[in-house]
From TrEMBL:
Annotated cofactor note: Binds 1 zinc ion per subunit.
Name of protein: Threonine--tRNA ligase
Quaternary assembly: Homodimer.
Class of this enzyme: ligase
Gene name tied to this protein: thrS
Superkingdom as given in the UniProt entry: Bacteria
Subcellular location as annotated: Cytoplasm
Names of required cofactors: Zn(2+)
Organism: Candidatus Paraimprobicoccus trichonymphae
Domain TGS: 1-58
Coiled-coil stretches noted in the UniProt entry, renumbered to this chain: none
MF terms in GO: ATP binding; catalytic activity, acting on a protein; metal ion binding; threonine-tRNA ligase activity; transferase activity; tRNA binding
Amino acid sequence: MLEIVFKDGSKKEFSESIEVREIFRKLGVKNACAGKLDKKLVDLRTQVNFDCKLEPVYFDSLEGKKVYWHTASHILAQAVKNEFKYSKLAIGPAIDNGFYYDFDLKSNLNKEDLSKLENEVNKIIKENLKIERFVMKYDEAVKFFEEKNENYKLEILSENLNKEEHVSFYKQGEFAELCSGPHLLSTGEVGCIKLLNSTGAYWRGNSKNKMLKRIYGISFQNKKQLKEYLENLEEAKKRDHNKLGRELEFFTTVDYIGQGLPILMPKGTKVMQILQRFVEDEEEKRGYLLTKTPLLAKKDLYEISGHWDHYRDGMFVINSDDKNKDVLALRPMTCPFQFQVYLNRSRSYRDLPMKLNETSTLFRNEASGEMHGLIRVRQFTLSEGHIACTPEQLEKEFTDCLDLANFMLEKLGLKDDVFYRLSKWDENNKEKYIGDSEEWENVQNKMRDILDKFDLKYEEVDGEAAFYGPKLDIQIKNVHGKEDTLITIQIDFQLAKRFDMQYVDINNQRQYPYVIHRTSLGCYERTLALLIEKYAGALPLWLSPEQVRILILNESLYEKSKKLKLKLGENKIRVFIDNRNEKIGYKIRQAQLDKIPYMLILGEKELEKNSISVRHREKGDLKSMKIEEFINLINKELSC
RNA sequence: GCUAUUGUAGCUCAAUAGGUAGAGCAGCUGAUUCGUAAUCAGCAGGUAGUCGGUUCGAAUCCGAUCAAUAGCUCCA
């Protein structure tokens, strides 16, 4: 006898081992694509032969979608095998927004190939082939792939630790694929597949390996859902800062200036100035002292910090082949410079914590393919800061940094869009880092302890640390779903030693402080980019480079509008008049119009009543009001 | 850096098979004063990203290079 408990708490007994799908059938559960057995995702074909908890998984959950998408990726692999005789299979997982499959192909894939494959894929769905699971002995599986000359599959197999265990396969029609599942029961259940694009991707994600062809796709249960998804995708792309930011004249690029070196136009610069003032003021309130340090230094400095050995590829080096001149490098980080403030004289524990901030321009020689609008550039400005503190102060200071970061996110309205990541070192790749294992484990544990005291969900990722210490990274996704670090808070236990930064403790002993590297708002270019995407260009009032546009309907009102502008300007409201050359005109491009929070209309009607008509970009027409009333309205909105 | 795609006026896009560049919007000038993008008339804008090659002739074909886009790798 076995007892199965369901999500609603109900129980059912079965006399013998039974398949998940059979259980669901008996219970009348329909449309489940997999099961969750004691919290583990399992195939509908799984035999249950012990007491357990079980619940159905459907397409409406991400886990469920991934089952569909994984099956879709197998169908794609089958289609590619049908269409390209010499193709070899690599891997094809489901991802958060669909699936991909990597192939080794002799030829490139163009659009026609992709649509041909799409037809083939949907043909396989229509055929509604039964998908069966079977197992093979390890040796048989090796032989199976050797015959097919599938060297990537063989490589995966060779890493199978337990060669005694059977290897799991899934088969549909003639196509069999190494896979641990779970999968749907037939190809027809997938619904419809759209192949989105094809790109290159390195085998095993290693740039030293061969580049394979990757095809991305998505599938839905029906065409309506697919259409909706594709439309949403198009909508999201309209918010792309790289397009919108240029259209709205926040920034531009010039080919002969170079990659990753955007020109910030007046609007973009205004927003960055607002952000920068906001950040510096807030940091000052929180006890930071502002510094301004050089943008470049002799390589000697970087040799001490370790950048010369661990970060040289990322730096712009000057005079490297002139023996008569000092070799200099533009700074990729501010830490070694700002440390000199600490080192200016001897420090006691009474000086700590020492909190320094800087609005620092940095230069990083990113590889040519990495640049992306304002999100990834070669010169950028960071809201940077460093805190030197005693071990006892570390927790409080770290907590304060996190609080500051969250405060900033809250103010920008990005709080719900971010996720947290504890970025650790890679212990299999020690040469990338400075310091020994014990120190790393020690600090990482410390960081984890602090994080666990917060009500904060975070994931841990190996190999994402800085070379000098672990990081708390606050991540965000752009409109393309690509993840980037917005804010980072790092604990460093190495650089103080390298720079011989000491303090004298209460027992008159010399000690090294901990250093926290942190940003409060990340880099301004990137933050601006994400704000444009978040708000589709219609930034909140306090961040809008143009808060008010005055529209005059009669040339004779021009002088009056100038006075109005002056008056609003005195109240620190950013206002523009909609005409150039002192001529009337109420032709405003709609695209720009709905980005401006308020529009004031000034015409004969208003003149008579000595008032203005106000239009809000979202609320539409507001009642006409006196200028003072409008100023109050804006101030009220700004204060909350 | 790698795999692809793209590059024609400020923007969006045209031009049968290589035959010597055209339209809308924006801009400018003038008229119009018309209540929320697109009134009328006129003008001006391009050595086709750049450099080289093939050809009698190249926006179109080839090569190199620069830049942009998506993805990989890398990273704030």
